[in-house]
Design goal:
With 226 residues, the chain is mostly helical. 53% of the residues lie in helices and 5% in strands. Helix 2 (26-43) runs antiparallel to helix 9 and helix 7 packs parallel to helix 9.
């Protein structure tokens, strides 16, 4: 089973297995997708922060068409802050990642376009749940505090909290409240939420800086939590 990228992990969680519909705010999910792409590039050593700007550290292709296109776009442009890149990248990105997941057999594309093509509707139910099972197992271990999350899991947990995607965890209201608190604890422990210094972070400082900036940008874009 070939691994999937962080934005793909986020989408696998966001889309209901049976109905194939996205859970939560579409704007939040699109911002999360853009952030996840940037985090993935940071995790593989391609992006870093410099003077509050996202900059390319290494422009060598990763080998993933979507990641490489974003990397090339950032490399060819002048430096911009994390909030700017979220807005520049979020439009149309989700469709590209969904198409990639369909091609890889992770989800199915159920086309329910109606009225002669006037109303475009696609659902994306699960086709291969092995990926999602692995993701949810990692998150479950992190949420129960049984293990210290690795960088990728801590990053995913931080993005779930920032984009307010706790409903995708399929928990009751009381458990969801506890999960939100634990997600924020993971973010803080990783240095993503400002709870600890970079020196105390469980994650590489260079990664923490990128995700902290993206998390703040998402929160500002979405406004106060209800």
């Amino acid at each position: 089973m070939a691994p999937i990228t962080l934005p793909e992990e986020l989408l696998v969680l966001a889309y209901d297995d049976e109905s194939g519909r996205a859970v939560g705010s579409r704007i939040a999910l699109d911002l999360g997708m853009a952030a996840a792409i940037l985090v993935e590039l940071a995790l593989v050593g391609r992006l870093t922060m410099s003077a509050d700007m996202l900059v390319v550290k290494d422009n060598a292709p990763v080998g993933d068409p979507i990641l490489d296109a974003v990397l090339a776009k950032i490399d060819s442009d002048t430096p911009h802050a994390a909030a700017s890149w979220l807005q520049r990248l979020r439009h149309g990105l989700r469709d590209k990642v969904l198409a990639d997941l369909v091609e890889r057999g992770v989800i199915r594309d159920v086309d329910e376009t109606a009225m002669g093509g006037v109303i475009h509707l696609h659902r994306y139910p699960s086709a291969d749940r092995s990926h999602e099972a692995g993701i949810r197992a990692r998150l479950a271990d992190a949420l129960t505090g049984q293990t210290v999350p690795d960088e990728r899991t801590a990053a995913l947990a931080t993005l779930l909290a920032a984009t307010r995607m706790e409903p995708a965890l399929h928990l009751d209201s009381e458990a969801m409240e506890q999960a939100h608190k634990r997600l924020e604890e993971i973010a803080a422990g990783a240095g993503y939420g400002g709870g600890v210094s970079m020196e105390e972070s469980t994650i590489r400082p260079s990664i923490s800086l990128v995700i902290a900036a993206l998390g703040r940008a998402i929160s500002q874009a979405l406004g106060a939590r209800a």
